[in-house]
Amino acid sequence: MANGSKMSINASADVGEYLGFKLNVTFDSFNNKFVMNVKGAMSHPMEVGADPLGNITRINNALEAMPAQLEEAQTKLSNVEHQLETAKAEVNKPFAQEAELSEKLDRLTALNALLNMDEKRNDAIGMDEETQEAETERKLADRPAERTSLKGKPSEMKARVSGTTAGRDAVDKAKGKEEVI
pLDDT for 10-36, tens place per residue? Predict the structure, then answer.
C-alpha cells in the first residue's frame, strides 16, 4: 500500500506454491474468514486457520481428495452420456398413442363446435323465461347489500311481541327513522 495502490475487501493475493499448485488467499467478508484456493486446472477452496501446520494438513487433505473428486466427476459424466444416448433413442421412437390422441382431439373439436353453436343459438333467438328469471336473480345478487339501521330494532321487536296498535305505531316510526338515517 506504500505505492498508492488500493485493495478492496475481497481482494485475492497469491501467497506461493505447494507441490506444483498455486496458492491464492481471499478474505470472505460474508463469513468473516480467509479462504485459500489450491489452483491447478481447477480451483479447490479451503478455510484457512490460525495454525500453520493445520493449514498444511488442510492443503494435503485437499490434494488427497482430488483423485476421488476426479473419479466422481468421471462417473457423473458417464451417467450423463448414457442418459443422452437413451434420450436420443427415445426421441426417434414413434408415439404409441398417436392415433388415439388424434381421435380424441377430433372429438374435442366437434364438441366445442356444438357448445359454441348452442351459445350462438340462444343469443340469436332470445332467452326463454327461465333463463331471463335466472339472469334477473343473478343481477340482483350482484348488487351491493343494503344496510339496515339497528337503532329502531329493539322497539320494533317489542312492538311485534306485544301485538298492540301502539306497538305497531312504534314499528312504523322506527321504519321511518331508518329511511332518514
Answer: 677 888 888 888 888 888 888 888 888
Question: Is pLDDT of 64 > 60?
Answer: yes
- Distance between CA 87 and CA 137 in Å, rounded? 58
Residue 11 · residue 3 · CB < 8 Å: no
- Residue 80's identity, in one-letter code, is V
Which grid coordinates belong to 34? 480467509
Q: pLDDT tens digits for 93-132?
A: 888 888 899 999 999 999 999 888 866 666 555 555 556 6
The predicted model scores a pTM of 0.40
Taking every pair of Cα atoms in the chain, the longest distance, rounded to a whole number of angstroms, is 111
Q: How far apart are CA 159 and CA 168, in angstroms?
A: 6
- Residue indicated by cell numbers 475487501: 9
CB atoms within 10 A of CB 100: 10
Q: Which of helix, strand or coil describes residue 156?
A: helix
**Cα 103 from Cα 101, distance rounded (Å):** 5
CA–CA distance, 27 with 22 (Å, rounded to integer): 17
How far is the C-alpha of 43 from the C-alpha of 162, rounded, in Å?
Answer: 94
Q: Centre a 10 Å sphere on the Cβ of residue 111 and count the other Cβ atoms it contains.
A: 10
Q: Are 10 and 26 in contact, with CB atoms under 8 Å apart?
A: yes
